[in-house]
Amino acid sequence: MADLLILPVLVPLLGGLLATALPVRSALVGTLAALATSLSGLGITLLVWLHGDLGTVLGGWGVPLGIGLSADGLSAALLAMASLVALAISIYAGSYFAGSAQARHFWPLWLLLWSALNGVFLAADLFNLYVMLELLGLSAAALGALTGKREAIAANLRYLLVGLLGSLTYLLGVALLYTAYGTLDIGLLGERLGPTPIAATALALMVSGLALKTALFPLHFWLPPAHANAPAPVSAALSALVVKASFYLILRLWTELFAPIADIGAATLLGLLGAGAVLWGSWRALRAQRLKLLAAYSTVAQIGYLFLFFPLLASLPPGTARDDLFAACVLMALTHGFAKAGFFLAAGLVQRKAGHDRISELGGVAQRMPATTFSIALAGSALVGLPPSGSFIGKWVLMRGAFETGQWWWLPVTVLGTLLAAAYVFRVLSRAFGLEPTPLQFVTNARSEIPALLLAFASVALLGLAAGPVWAILGFGAAPA
Amino acid sequence: MSQMLSWTALLPGAIVLSSMLPGAFIFLVKEESHLLRGVLNMFGAIIKLVLVGTLIWGVFLGGVFESRLTIAPGLDLVLHADALSVLFVTLSSVLWLVTTVYAIGYLEHSPNRSRFFGFFSLCVSATVGIALAGNLLTFVIFYEILTLATYPLVAHRGTPEATRGAKIYLAYTMGGGVALLVGAVWLRALTGPVDFVEGGVLSDMASTLHPQLIAIFLLLLLGLGVKAALVPLHGWLPQSMVAPAPVSSLLHAVAVVKAGAFGIVRVVYDVYGVDFAAELGLLIILGVWASLTIVYGSVKALTQDGLKARLAYSTVSQVSYIALGASILGPVATIGGMVHLVHQGIMKITLFFCAGNYAETLGVHKVSQMDGVGRRMPWTTLAFTVGALGMIGIPPIAGFVSKWYLGLGAVEAGQHWVLLVLAASTLLNAGYFLPILYKAWFRPPPDAWPNEHRFESRFETLGALLWPPVITAAFCLIAGLLAAAPFSPLEWATLIARREYGL
């Protein structure tokens, strides 16, 4: 049964190959492959839900030689989010790229990216993780440059180089660990690792490499232009999914592998960088003139929130309070995945209709597309962290943790970030109430508007009102709080 | 038995959903489908009223109605009906029905109706959610949803002033919302989940925690005070007068302002407990703040020429009666504050309906243009007169009952200065309402109205616009005349006070 773990990696890879081989039918092949990939990802999540952690070694070599795959609650949660979000992006892309020459390049690259993404979530050893990360970075940069416009190419070339630098830094850390401990399997390493200078250096190298890839302030400089200039479905994938892959790794390495050396001081440093990201990202989003740039800076800020959890996690002993914080952190990452993808997809529709995405001139178009504007509003309220979104629950637990651990200084950051986010989201929404003629119906183009609407809706209602499954799949029971 | 159990566990949730689901469908309704939209609107409003009727009876008999949804371990969304929630739920459901009729008439031929009625329904759902919230988390959630659902209504007209008003509204309420959130989380971190319990839950806390509890109370009060329009947090209220008249009515009588006042009542009685709040010295702060707001609002109202602006400042003043009632220790004052929650609602909604009618029918927006409107629109003006006299506190209209109990409660608690506040406010109320009445009834009408609009109607204006204020004016009279009848607002407020003080 655990051999099924290969499917979420293999299916999109094969689909991508097939889409390359049949360029004329790439959209059809791509959509079918996307459906199959999504189902395989959800299937794995279901297996983890029912049977607990899964692990397998391919090729019959056994750890530490073979290629290991494993899935626990954390991977399953992100896998499920990625499966749903990527499926919605695929359906949207089918309509977005219809009749365009970009389609035949999009589908193979997109499926390759998806394969690498699932690979990151499922890989069980540090070297495979490196391979998957590298693949993810390459396909992401290629997708980002799909429009062929000058600024897109410049931004994505930088993205590519930054990504390479990040992966190599990470690889350096991996090499250090391998020389010192003779294995790359995360489970085995976790048992052997002690508080040595080598481990500390490896931690610093790996986390900073990944922080660069996940655009943690002040290493975020490459993200806004790259994400803002990509085609809308690609922007959605980059912001919602790709940065989550490296964040997932940081979270996993920090809390599992490096738990003995990742102390409160180091965690506070991450928290401070996160605080910087929240404030600076939100501020730049508020000042952004273009809708997609706003969304990109908002990603910088949202990544920042995730790092605010680290110092709180570090200062709590294992127990319900720490579990709650961990689950809330994952919940925020998942919510951001849904919300940001929905936001970017909707922004893409507005941009298509208006021919530009200058916020100050978008009012009329926004008003003529009620469903799209509604998606932006829903996704936007999830970005602000307004109830009943998943990020509201996340922030509630975050602030509670700040009070309970006495680290009250994270509160002003959260409060200020929330207010800034409300300001930048409503700067867009306020344009949708003008004296334009009334739109006649809610949905104008079902195939592209519904995926965005569903994603945004999921970020608000699904994750906000039924966050329990996130706790459950992470293995945290319904203990009295 | 299990069937009974599930029935009582579903009712509060069903009351919230009875307007939320039709609201969601209304968004999808095509703009020109008047009939379908109207049916959805009325269907939701009437179903809700039936459900609320059942709830009133059940709570009166002492039944427990609670819907609980676990969001995550330790985070429960709780809808729980106690006597106080029933008071507010009933007020909002009844007035929602009336306002929906009014809004359908008012917005005929105006653009973006599906959007308007969609958010209108969400707004009422959020209000009912606030009323039924059984713990602080649920309260915060619905309080914020209310902020969001009201924004599009204030911005609805799409003019630059509307956009500006909506922006100011949002800036104030978001700021308040964050203060409330921080206070709520802080309290949660100190005590665990904060359920609303009659008589309060905090009185057993260790005395070392008292400074923190005081700070939390002030944060919560700051957050609630924005919506309750306590001076100087009231700045958004006059600005959001740009909204269409049905929205102003809803904002002032039922939804936003009332949600703030209701929240203050909840925090004082069911979180801190009124005795404990008095012990911490918090009631004095609240009382002085409310009194300042009462006098300030009335003074500002005197100077306004815009009819809606005058009514807006009158709201600033009148809503603080509720907070004032909560700030005086003793069951009689409690009754006065609670009953004013309803009385202010029915009186103020009447006044705003009438103001809307003058504007729609005659183009009259200012007090100075109101000479002789009573002859042109006698029924509307009659309703306005009832509302205005009630606000001043003339018996036998509802407002008199509120003021009587507030004054009596103040005397009983030995706080005679409150009488001065009440007297000053009454004089000022008379000062800004009586000139309007004099102009309307006794001055000759002008040769031509600013912008007269003749409806094809047997009445002075469109039927859908005329009946709502006439009906709510009748409520004002009935609530005052039959104050001692069973199930009157006063009787229900007495029931609440008995339960809060454990009498």
UniProtKB/TrEMBL annotation, chain A:
Record's keyword terms, sorted: Cell membrane, Membrane, Transmembrane, Transmembrane helix
Name this protein carries in UniProt: Oxidoreductase
Molecular function terms from GO: NADH dehydrogenase (ubiquinone) activity
Principal localisation: membrane
Subcellular location: Cell membrane; Membrane
Organism: Halochromatium glycolicum
InterPro entries: CPA3_Na-H_Antiporter_D, NADH_UbQ_OxRdtase, ND/Mrp_TM
GO biological process: ATP synthesis coupled electron transport
Residue span, NADH:quinone oxidoreductase/Mrp antiporter transmembrane domain: 123-420
Mode of membrane association: Multi-pass membrane protein
